[in-house]
Amino acid sequence: MYINTERMIIRDFIPEDAADLHDILGDDETMANCEPSYNFEKTKNFLNTFCIARNGAVAAVHKDSGKLIGYILFNESDEGVYEMGWIFNRNDWQQGYAFESCKAVIDHAFCERKAHKIFAETIDTVKSVGLMKKLGMQLEGIQRSQTKDNHGNWADLYLYGLLEDDWREQT
User: Burial level of 166, CB count in 10 A (0-12/13-18/19+)?
Assistant: First the structure.
């Protein structure tokens, strides 16, 4: 995948992304609503086995700096159905990079890959749910006390989805 937006390049991961990806996955605050932060070895393994070998995610690279600032899960779970998720470097939050990048991936999914549906899940009811709504996703359900957060507390899992028909109406 290679997508150009106004400020971002969305592309496949490469081995040289390890340090920038670790800046994201190795940060406790960034990973607060995902899983415990990674050590560098775990980041490299994840990069090589999932992001590269399985093509399970794409890199969001800032055009001006050339730095990878975002990880975007983009994985076909069933025919025409894609799971999506995102984790962006904390230093780049609240600047619209996640929206710009994820919107480009969604547009690509529906236009180029003929996706039927894109879905995402989160325990973060503020930042992630806010972005899901901004991307046009709709709440499809809440799995109560479905998973544990990084502190061992039970948390609700919010499921959002976007159908191709809904996406077409929005564009």
Answer: middle
